[in-house]
Each structure stands twice: as C-alpha cells, then as structure tokens.
Amino acid sequence: MKKIKEGVFVDDCVKFMSRMDEKSIDLTVTSPPYDNLRDYKGYSFDFENIAKHLYRVTKEGGIVVWVVGDKINGGRTLTSFRQGLFFQDIGFQMHDVMIYQKKNTPFMRSNAYTNCYEFMFVLSRGKPNTFNPLKVKTARHGLEMLTHNKGPDGKNKKVLKELKKEKSRTNIWSYAVGYGGTTTDKIAFQHPAVFPEKLAEDHILSWTNPGDIVFDPMCGSGTTGKMALKYNRRFVGVDISEEYIAIAKERIYSGQIQMAGVV
Ligand SMILES: C[S@@+](CC[C@H](N)C(=O)[O-])C[C@H]1O[C@@H](n2cnc3c(N)ncnc32)[C@H](O)[C@@H]1O
User: Could you tell me which residue, 170 or 114, shows the higher pLDDT?
Assistant: First the structure.
C-alpha cells in the first residue's frame, strides 16, 4: 500500500480521489456546496461520483461526516435527504443523523419558523472502529439517597449512591457562528461558507485517535485540517479553488514548522 500523501491540494476532488488508495481514510469531515446556494465561482459539483469515491477511500469502520443544509426556495429542496438515501444505496450505513444548531444569525423566514440548523450525516463503512463519546457535566452530582430496585420482599430500598458527574452529549450540537464563534482567523471569512472549528474538532475527537488520517475533499478555508493537526491527526485536503487553498494553507500551517512531506 502506498504511503498517503498528506497536505492540501488544488484539484477536483473526484479526480483527486480516483488517484487515492482504496480504504485509506479513517474519517472525512466535509461540507459540500448546498444546492448551488452560494457562488463558488461556477465550479461544478458531481455529488454521485463524490459519494462513490468517498465510499471507496473510506477504511472498513471509517466514518464520513457530511454537513449539509437545503436551499429554501418556496419550500425545502430536500437535496440533503436524497443525498442521504444515495449514500445508503452505495453501501454506507447512516450511523446517525445529527443536528448542527447555530446559536446566532439563523435564517429568517416570513412564513415559517426561523431556520437555525443543518444536518450532520454520520455515515459509516460497516461498524465504526472508534467512538470516543464527548461528555457534558450533569446538572446535579454528589451523594444522594437513590431508590434501589425492589427486592423479592417487594420493598423499595434506598441506598446512598453517587450521581454521575458527567454524561454523553446528545446528537444536537450548538455552536456560535461568525467571528469569534466559527473561528477567530479573520482570513477564513474570505470564504463564504466556513463551518465552526469546534464542529470539526468535536467530530475528530469522537471518531478518530491520534495518528489517524482525516480527509476533507472540499476543504474550503481548511477548518477540518486545522483541527486535525491540532489534535495530532494526519490530514489530506482538497479544494477546486486555488484561492481557497491559499487560505487553507495559511490557516493550517501558519505558525507551524512545515511538517515533512506536507505540500
Ligand atoms: C461549503 S464549502 C466548504 C467550507 C469548509 N468546510 C470550511 O470550513 O471552510 C464547499 C467547498 O467545496 C469546494 N468545491 C466545489 N466543488 C468542488 C470539487 N468538484 N472539488 C473540490 N472542491 C470543490 C468549493 O470551492 C468550496 O470551497
């Protein structure tokens, strides 16, 4: 098996993935252009081939996190649902449908409730290899008299037990967006659709371990890559735009000694 070439590259991701080894990626965290909602300078978006190649390059037990929203044009396009079903048809399991809730700047609608979320499809190739659940503090903890299961005598017994200090998070994740929320890298906002650093971080910590390979085939301003390197994962990123890759390089590698083998 060829050594994976880490770094960020300007290319069409379909062409790029067709040159990658199969089953070489532990985790992909990516976000496609939504229904041509934004102008990415006319670049085309070949969803079906992207999905098929993602399946090919994902390791057994690897994960793809697909962050997606629908255009609202009269009603919702439901492109995201079609994409989810297509992913299933080609072999992925829809391991979870998570919600990325935006704490601020949600989209106002005059005749429907304000939209404040996007989907995070967590797709797995077979059973996930890694799950490091992120925890939150429980509201109450310490010692408390807790009801014990009834014994054969039918009586409820109380025992002094310690309440758990933390529990697993739910699958709705909320993030502040905009400067200071999404990132404090001013340069990132030269890209029209950056997702929060914390979102990428939380998925990377949940689904990988240090040394694993993280991929973003449409890496834009490089958010996934920045967080992957921060947590000692290896990273491969691609974007069709030279301009966005220049931003990604600045964000990922500024202040860092260029790693051996990194382009
Ligand atoms: C929603 S943005 C990703 C933003 C990124 N998650 C971030 O935090 O900056 C989608 C990206 O897909 C890129 N793109 C569109 N078509 C592509 C293709 N065929 N190959 C590679 N990148 C593509 C666009 O240039 C754009 O940067």
Answer: 170
Domains and CATH numbers, the chain: 7-134+169-253 (3.40.50.150), 139-168 (no CATH)
pTM for the structure as a whole: 0.89
Report whether residue 195 contacts ligand 1, using a CB cutoff of 6 Å. yes
Distance 43 CA to ligand 1 centre (A): 9
Give the long-range contacts of residues 207-210, CB within 8 A, separation 24 or more.
207/26, 207/27, 207/63, 207/65, 207/122, 207/128, 207/130, 207/131, 207/132, 208/26, 208/27, 208/130, 208/233, 209/130, 209/132
Provide the mean pLDDT of the chain: 89
- Cβ of 239 closer than 6 Å to ligand 1, yes or no, is yes
Is a pLDDT exceeding 90 seen at residue 162?
Answer: no
